[in-house]
Design goal:
Elements: E1 5-10, E2 13-17, E3 26-32, H1 34-41, H2 85-95, H3 105-113, E4 121-128, E5 139-147, H4 158-163, H5 179-184, H6 194-205, E6 213-223
Antiparallel strand pairs: 1-2, 1-6, 3-4, 4-6, 5-6
């Protein structure tokens, strides 16, 4: 199996293509820790009852650990004012487009340490399903996410947007359309199997209101050592 980009420009019509010119198939992201993201978004929601994992109470009923968690970049207002020459070089490479996605964990760790609120963030590794690029052996598999190429559109995920932190279209008001899919999510808010992720994507893209575009099914991993 090779990486597949699922291109959908009309409801229910999905064309499978190779990954060329469709964004990164693997790399590291610096993302906000979910409890922090949840707390920041809680006041935006006024749900009369619990719907999926949409913010409802002080404590999340389920956690989402995928890509769509306020990915930080070189224009972050949280960057420290005083940084080393090596750190300035990394920022320059990012602004030149050479480092939108961190290829090396060391660069991701350096960038994380440049954030004034670094404790609010963590590093994850993403890899398109079918990609034969090696993943870090000390990283733990969390599950499958489904979304735009991770270096586009703030790593938009249809799991996060439909069942957790709704920021684009959001979930169905009744909270029933994806109930079966939500129940298949693991404790990390991701799918345990590729097939479940794929079937959810197809179901979503059949809806007239779904966000059209290019999609990957990503394997998500996090460091078993932490980001210290």
């Amino acid at each position: 199996m090779k990486p597949i980009v699922y291109v959908c420009n009309e409801p229910g019509i999905i064309i499978e293509k190779g990954p060329e010119e469709y964004g990164s198939t693997n790399g590291f992201l610096v993302v906000k820790k979910y409890p922090v993201l949840y707390a920041e978004n809680l006041s935006r929601f006024n749900c009369p009852r619990q719907i999926y994992g949409v913010p409802f109470g002080i404590v999340p009923n389920k956690t989402y650990l995928g890509t769509d968690r306020d990915v930080e970049n070189e224009y972050s207002p949280n960057l420290k004012q005083i940084i080393s020459p090596e750190e300035r070089n990394l920022i320059a490479r990012m602004k030149n487009g050479d480092c939108k996605i961190f290829t090396f964990e060391s660069d991701a760790l350096m960038f994380l340490r440049m954030l004034s609120n670094a404790d609010d963030y963590e590093i994850i590794h993403f890899r398109a399903a079918g990609c034969d690029e090696a993943y870090p052996r000390d990283y733990t598999f969390l599950g499958y996410d489904v979304g735009y190429p991770a270096d586009n559109a703030e790593a938009f995920s249809i799991i996060c947007d439909c069942m957790f932190i709704c920021r684009w279209h959001g979930c169905d008001e009744e909270g029933k359309l994806f109930a079966d899919d939500f129940n298949k999510l693991n404790k990390n808010g991701l799918f345990d199997s590729f097939d479940d992720a794929y079937h959810y994507m197809v179901k979503y893209l059949n809806e007239d209101w779904s966000e059209k575009g290019d999609y990957y099914i990503y394997e998500i991993r996090c460091s078993s050592k932490g980001n210290g």
